[in-house]
Amino acid sequence: MRLLIFLLACAGLAAATPAPATAPAPAAPAAELSVADAVVLGLVEGVTEFLPISSTGHLIIATHTLGLESETPLTGRDGQPLWYKRPSDRNPAGEPLTPKLAADTYIVIIQVGAILAVVLLYWGQLTSMLRGLAGRDSNGLRLLRNLFCAFLPVAVVGLLASKWIERHLFSVGTVIVGLLGGAVLMFFAEHRRRRWSGVGREVKDPADLFASQALGIGLMQCLALWPGTSRSMVTIVGGYFVGLTPAKAAEFSFLVGLPVLAGAAVVKGVRSGPAMIEVFGWANVILGIAVAAVSAAAAVKFLVAFLGRQGLAAFAVYRIILAVLLAAVFYL
């Protein structure tokens, strides 16, 4: 709830900086992303990426609130249109460059900050996996195998469905559905975990999972392709289902997130990264990544401690409250 109030308050302060009257250097962006916009989006990404409340859903809400959804075609300083995809024989109309296209790319690229946070916090596990590849750490090799099994399903489905998802599911309505559906799943998983706790079913470490169990978590992770569901949530719930403790389920979720987030950032960067830079420039893109890294590190530490004491129920309640507020604001 505090996060939503903070976003709305920051959104009121964020305003685009008008272009100067004199001609700037050629490298200047075609449109402005204010410092306030960059900080808000970086905070939202960092805080929500690893909490089970949906970073994509919150970022869609944030870009909507900040007014970054304009589909007005942009023009260069010479008055000529800027293109995301230039007109061709197959597509005579082409696809003009818009602020919305740049913003959709921005909220994926700043995930790099969340990646950096996990790399620093879980450097020991990462080096263990590297030693496993060299045949010097069997525990690290098993962990690497399990991460690969959990990553594979979402990588395949995500690559096949990413364009369709971007066209049809990036809306406030789909976020509301994802928030509510995820809350129901979380209540069920938490009830099931508490019921079976202490009966000898707990797995001590993610490296101790069978490959089939890790693959099952990966299949569940595909649910997170629906905006508002939360990749972190479904992997933590999947960890519950195979017997991981809350803290270990969260740890596995963070590590699985590394290839998932990196893959998404690379694919999006290749497809539309140059267009994003042409619209927003470099400075605030780097600022958003830095803010996301710091806030993600804090969120990771908070989540591990909180899950050990309280479990998922509080986050499920937050999701329901947020979904109701969004429905009231946008549809009533």
Strands ordered across the widest β-sheet: 1-2
Distance between the termini: 20 Å
Q: How many strand elements?
A: 2
User: Taking Cα atoms only, what radius of gyration do you get, to the nearest Å?
Assistant: 21 Å
- Biggest sheet record: 2 strands, antiparallel
What does this structure look like?
This protein has helices at residues 2-13, 35-49, 55-65, 99-109, 111-121, 123-133, 138-168, 172-196, 211-221, 231-241, 246-280, 283-310, 313-331, and strands spanning 83-85, 95-96. It is an all-alpha fold and 332 residues long. It has one domain (29-85, 93-331). Strands 1-2 form a two-stranded antiparallel ribbon. 45% of the residues are buried.
List keywords for this structure.
332 residues; mainly alpha; two-stranded antiparallel ribbon; 2% strand; globular; disordered N terminus
Helix/strand layout:
Layout lengths: L1 H12 L21 H15 L5 H11 L17 E3 L9 E2 L2 H11 L1 H11 L1 H11 L4 H31 L3 H25 L14 H11 L9 H11 L4 H35 L2 H28 L2 H19 L1
Antiparallel strand pairs: 1-2
